[in-house]
Amino acid sequence: MEMDKDRLWKYYQLMEQITDMTCRLEDFDREEFVNLLSQFCELFRIAKGVTEFYTNRRNEAEKKGEILVDFDNGRGEIPVIYRRVSPPSGVVIIGTLYMAKDDEPLSDEEKEKVDMVYRLLMSFIARNRLQRTVLQFAFTDEDGFANRRSMMNFIDEKIVKGEQYGNIAACINLKNFNAINQEVGRKKGDYILRSVYEYLKNEIGEDGHISRLGGDNFILFFRNELRDKILESFSGIPVEYDPVEHKKIIVSARAGVFVVTKETELTVPGQIMERIYPAVQIARQSGQDIVFYDGKIIEMREHVAKVRKDFARGLEKKEIVAFYQPKVDVNTGKIVGAEALCRWFRNGQTVMPMEFIPILERSMDICRLDFFMFETVCADIRRWLDEGRTVPRISVNFSRKHLNNPDLLGRILEIINRYEIRRKYLEIELTETTTDVEFNQLNRIVTGLHREGISASVDDFGNGYSSLNLIRSIPWDVIKIDRSLLPTDSDNEEGITNRMYSHVVSMATDIGLKCITEGVETKRQVDILRKNNCPVAQGFYFDKPLPAETFEKLLEGTPYRDKI
User: Fold this and answer.
1) Class for domain 148-293, per CATH?
2) What is the pLDDT of residues 51-77, one digit of tens each?
3) What DSSP character marks residue 493?
């Protein structure tokens, strides 16, 4: 169909309006766009216009995107114009125009003009869609959660408007979420994570914001009036993750919290992060549910930084040495083993273990200490053997931090082989575990030690998780019974403490474990060990941890016979 003067005039007017719209830099006005598109379609007998938007080519192939029908009079069946735009970002935009099958086809002149207008419109769509995509990528992560940048932007707007005061910032970490993922599967785990996010987002409301830091960590910013309600929710958010079987799970979180008051000099969003990050780390490391930021945290951070720096220097200067606390046969008084314990001497002063061990356990520094101690022990054993001494089995503690190290056994064997020591002289002490994930890793490590002929002991049994499954399913050689289970001199012989201790020793013996009781401090406690057939004691009653040169002199004979 040839275009008459009236249609041409209307076409040129429409082109002018479309060109003006596409040249403006203002925000996209969808109503204006749809109105112009409708006029364009009616002018050229176009029955339907469809725009498809995909963030990448894979999503296009899987039809996972946004499809908009911008104009449709209900008669469109035959596609007449197709346009595909792929900006450098990888975003895919597709436009298709349809005509009714009984309408007169477009003439060459009409096709040329329709193609020109549609190119212009698609270019405009591509530009605006790309802007939206950039914003989406900038402020959301790959899973569609608002990200850290979005939170920083939100807080910055609050600061600019002077609305930062009277709010609360919190950084939360979901408890045991790795174990939850293993229990329900990754897909349901993702659903649970999203449900927690949406629950908190709804509780916070439009005046607040929630962003995901990554993994199972989130930042929240909300009004002070919601404080009790939000903080209480951290103790347990119910999620129904299987609607068919009505399975539910309660998800709880640890949090670092900072209250923004008018006394707070808050000028940039980063000052919020500097407060809530260390607070949540302290919550995780100390086992507390909620830690509020205050001035003491600054002092604590400075102290931690100083200890870690001094520790690194201490290793270089050999300020850290191994002491040995004897393990004594309660029937003969003979030394049958020892536990290697570290001592730190700095500037003529003794740094007590409780002043630095908990700090080292917050990072992988504890692993450096463990391997330093293990190598020191191997060197001492090699020297004692070369001097012709009788050497008992020496145990060395290894932190839970090693559980994620796939090469732990390899490193232990490398040190043993380097010092050419028979494996019967060494024992690895590992503490109880608290989660199923750690349990599996612990089982892998102990099984590997057992396979290589290296003794493994469960340390401080009775002071933590203490499940029967822990000693039934893992091939331990030794169980070290914690002092908390050992009766004191004031306990009744028929009391529950005595019966509990007797039961633990009997149970361990029945399944083939060797028993040691630590924390023995009195003669009566030695008698209790003997009465209950626990053959080995460790504690101050016999001796405190001793320097290597003192301990090695006691290796011959029965130095503690007069104490049994």
Assistant:
1) alpha beta
2) 888 877 888 888 888 888 878 888 888
3) T
